[in-house]
Amino acid sequence: MHENFFHKIKVYYEDTDAGGVVYYANYLKFLERARTEALFSIGYSNSKVRDQFNSLIIVKSCNIEYNKSAHLEDELTIRSFVKSITKTSFFLSQIITKEDENIAEAKVHLVFINKEGKPVKIPNEIYLKFKPYFCDTIKF
Prior knowledge:
Layout: E1 5-10, H1 26-41, H2 46-53, E2 56-66, E3 75-85, E4 89-98, E5 101-113, H3 124-130
Antiparallel strand pairs: 1-3, 2-5, 3-4, 4-5
């Protein structure tokens, strides 16, 4: 059985347009925050990955589908699942929900690179910590 990373956020005025609807690009920020918190939850940070492993984690691609709008002061939950892992990268599925409503779904390809921008092997310590969160089938 896989585990999920959960991150909760509240929508603030700065996240919305004049009508109180979350601006589409801000969902990407919410997803980034959830990924950062997931990394913290396994004992790492982006700066620790950089300093300890001379690596950076970058987004190679992101495909997001918007299903419903989120609004000012909504409380959202972002669930993140590791879909698959290669030697140098991993694929996450992230789902943003408001209560039981599916707001948005994203497929994100993350790559470990060195300071020169070349892909490098995911450190074994990090791979092992992500392993319990691996899920090959997700039901949306």
